[in-house]
Amino acid sequence: MATKDEKNLQKVLAKIDRMDEPARTTMQRMHKIITAAAPELKPRIWYGMPGYALHASSPVLVFFRNDERMTLGLSEKAELKPAGGEDGQLIPAAWYLEELDDVTEKRVAEIVRSAVSVNAR
Prior knowledge:
The chain is an alpha+beta fold. The protein has helices spanning about 5-15, 25-35, 100-120, and strands spanning about 40-45, 50-55, 60-65, 70-75, 95. It is built from three helices and five strands, in the order ααβββββα. A five-stranded antiparallel β-sheet has the order 1-2-3-4-5. InterPro entries: YdhG-like (IPR014922).
């Protein structure tokens, strides 16, 4: 019998597989980057799109969407802090992308690890 985590993972993978190209390939890579950067995160569907939480029943911290644009985001449940500097009180919580290159993949992994390390305490 499949666990809740396994069922949720299958739902996330099925959701990604139903996406049109080129988003499907990009989102498959995004899923791999997120799960490699923070293997403790549990995938599940969140507002119709893939989301990742520390536990199957805890709030989603990281998500990605494929609407008009592909988006990586941090939910309001992630500990968010103002950027400071030129951005003042703006809180970085969402990033749009069209594709993944090496620099973007590295930054996605950093964002995910940061969200998890702050919220795992």
